[in-house]
C-alpha cells in the first residue's frame, strides 16, 4: 500500500456564543478553527487527522506531500522519522500520524485500540472546564455534571487567590473528585499576557489544595520546560502534580522521568506525541510509578486518537471537554455523527469501528477554505 494523496482543508465551526479559555488570556473564543488532513492510498483507503488552527489557517499540505507521497502508511516508525524533520522546520506534525493508524485500522478491520493491544471498555470521564469562573457561577455547572453522572470535574484557575473558588466548590461538593488546572505550561498570546507563577506561588497554591482535599492533581503550575522546577515542587508538596500536555516529542517526557518530576503524564497525541509515542510515554510513566491521562482539548479526531490510547494503556480517566457553549457538538462539528462521543453516566468507550472509528461529514469539505 502507498500514500497517493495528501489533502488539507481549513474548517471553521461556529460556537453558539463565546467562552474565555484560560490558555488564550482575554480572548472570547467564538469559532472552532482546525486543519483537517485527508491521506489517500492506492488501495482506496483514506485516513483522517486534524490539528487545532486559527483564523486564516496554516497551510502545509505541500511539504507534507513531499514527505508522505509514496510511503507505506503501515511504516509508522519510518514516517515518524520523516515527521521529525517536518517538526524541525515547520509546524508540529504529530497529528498526521493518527491518519496512518486510521488507515491501518481500516485495512485490518480493527479499531486503533485493538491494534495497540487493548480491549474496549467504558472509561470514567472527568468533565473538563475551559475558563475560570467564580464559585457561584461554577457550582450550577458542577451540579449539572454530577446529575449527568460525572464523578470528577477539573477546574481552571489563573491566580493564586483562586484557591478560594476551589474551597467554595469543595464545600458545596465534599465528596467530588477535583482536578485543578493552572494553565501555566503555555499560552496563546493574542489579546494579553498570561499571569505567571513563581515557584513560591505554586507551593502556596498546592498548600491550599492540600487543605481542600481529594484533589486528583494540580496541572501545569509551572512552564512546560521547567523540568527541575516540577521535580522540586513534587518533592515539596503532597498534592499530585500533572503536566506535559503540549511538550514536543517523546524525549521531553524522558526529561520529566529522569527527574521523577510528575505524578501524572498528560501528552496529547494530537499535539505532543502522536499515537505510538503516546503509548511509549504511558509505559514510561508506569515504569516511574506515575499515571497517564492525556490532554484532549483539540477536536473530535484528536479526542478519538487519545481515547484509543487511553483504552489501550488502561488509563484511569479520560478528559471530556465541556464548557458550554464549547460542547461535544462543537468540538465534533466535522463528524457525520457527533453523538459517537456521547458519554453514558459519565463513562465513555472508544469507537468499535475500524481505524479511529469516526466518519467525516462530507458537507464540511464543501464549506472548507
TrEMBL record:
Keyword check for Metal-binding: yes
Keyword Cytoplasm: no
Stretches of the chain forming a coiled coil according to its record: none
Domain of life: Archaea
Domain Mandelate racemase/muconate lactonizing enzyme C-terminal: 135-240
One BP annotation, GO: carbohydrate catabolic process
Alphabetical UniProt keywords: Magnesium, Metal-binding
Cofactor names: Mg(2+)
Signal peptide: none
GO molecular function terms noted in the UniProt entry: hydro-lyase activity; magnesium ion binding
Name of this protein: Mandelate racemase/muconate lactonizing enzyme family protein
